[in-house]
Amino acid sequence: MVKFITAAQAAALIPDGAGVGVGGMGLSGWPEEIACALRDRYNATGHPKNLFLHQGCDIGDWAERGVSRLGETEPGMVTRWTCAHMGSAFAMHPHVKNGDIAAWMLPQGVIMNLWRAIGAGRPGVLTKVGLGTFVDPRCGGGRVNSAAKGSFAEVVSFGGKEYLFYKSYNVDVALLRGSVADEDGNITFDYESLIHEGYDIANAVHNSGGIVIVQVQYIAKSGTLSPQRVRIPAALVDYVVVATDPRACWQEEKTEFDPSISGQQHKPMRKISPAPLDERKVIARRCAMELRRGDLINLGVGIPSGVGRILSEENCIGLVTTSAESGAIGGVTSYAPSAAFNSEAFIPHCDMFNLITGGGLDVTILGIGQIDRFGNNNVHQFGGRITGCGGFIDITHATPRLVFCGTLTAKAKLAVHDGVLEILSEGSHRKFVRDVDSVTYAASRRAENQEVLYVTERAVFKLTDGGLTMTEIAPGLDPERDVLSAMDFRPAISPTLSEMPPGIFREQWGELRKYIDGIEE
């Protein structure tokens, strides 16, 4: 029988040393009110202590809400942490850097499937995802700091091929969020921005003999919820907390509620005002040239997300189908990568990653952190920053066309006008280095026939068996003076080195459709 309790009562149920599972993305699925009560109880009593937190994607608003709440304590509440992304959990970072929390990162899609494996009583997940990257035990085992010992993955041979086996772990408590609970404890995700992994975590914890606590916004009379709306059945739920704080149930980082995000309606999308002409727009335009009609695409954060804006400016929305790793398919990317406006479909978070790692995407456009002479890309941890891999490793595993993009150097002063690029002053930080600090994308492990491009504002490089080859250069630039001098290694130069299209360096372009239709010649 489900019990309805307060957030403070929920926090008091969590024992010392518990393995705690949380789910969601952005703020969707995150039980903010329970987390604050948990923090307050620890600060007042010193309990619960020594928690092992298991998290998937980034959860937070990059300010204070989210998993960061669990770091607003003296050391000792959370002492171990596995996740795919910890970037927004700012209050947790000092604990990780000081070694008060032993932290590991794992691929996001692997974590989604681990919840299913634990719930089904399986020993773990067997996959090639992560081979050769920092989660491979031969390359660091996903350890974020020296306090983390051992690895959650081991290298195994199966059928004469090499795999990683990610081991299941113990979980005692699920802290989840839904939208509506009926009086029996059935939970809907009606107003969430995605079908997050709440069911999978609830099943894993319930079948492990633990307790499942779900925060909701609304209560419905028993028997009034359509069974098709129920995402977590009451049989898996032990306690329900009805939130009293209006900030505790936001859909995503910047939105409390928008029905076009949760799918109740589609809203008219006003034409997006053109982005300013700068190097970021040039890069996004060049990336968009790699799309083809009918492609199912994934766009990363930062410059890659600008490709959606280019599609709108060029009246090419609808020629390709966008998708988010959260499970939203179609529509227009929202303010945050966890959500989209006017989606055509929502599929469960884990199902989306199985589509991705099975090769269901046609192309993905992702960011650049560090690129080395072999073509490896590091986006998860460098320069003293703690961010995370998120779904990067899963997405790059089997997608046939990868486009990595970013500026050649950081903080360079550049000017774009009249079809050319001017370098006013060189950047203070090089992104193309001899060796990356750590490997998020392992070029040596790329899928068979996988095509990989590296797009910058100054040049385009292609991954070949020998490393990087420069295939295009921006109009008006000299390869030696303006590109190679800003790199720590020397790539090959194609004998047919061509000029990047001058049109992408002008205010008005208008030529994307012909590239998408494959008639650019």
Structure write-up:
This protein starts with a strand and ends in a 5-residue tail after the last helix. The protein contains 12 helices and 35 strands. Helix content is 18%, strand content 26%. The mean pLDDT is 96. The strands form 10 sheets. An 8-stranded parallel beta sheet has the order 1-15-12-9-2-3-4-5, with helices on both faces. A hairpin with a 2-residue loop joins strand 29 (413-417) and strand 30 (420-425). The chain has 521 residues and is α/β, with parallel strands linked by helices. Helix 4 crosses helix 5 (198-207), helix 4 (108-119) packs across helix 9 (349-357) and helix 7 packs across helix 8.
Helical region count?
12
Spans of at least 5 consecutive residues with low confidence: none
Q: How does the major sheet shape up?
A: 8 strands, parallel
Q: How would you classify the helix and strand content by structural class?
A: alpha/beta
Mean pLDDT across every amino acid position: 96
What proportion strand? 25-35%
Compute the separation of the termini in Å: 67 Å
Computed over alpha carbons, the radius of gyration is 23 Å
Q: Fraction of residues in helices? A: 10-25%
Q: If strands are numbered along the chain, what order do they take across the biggest sheet?
A: 1-15-12-9-2-3-4-5
What is the global morphology? globular
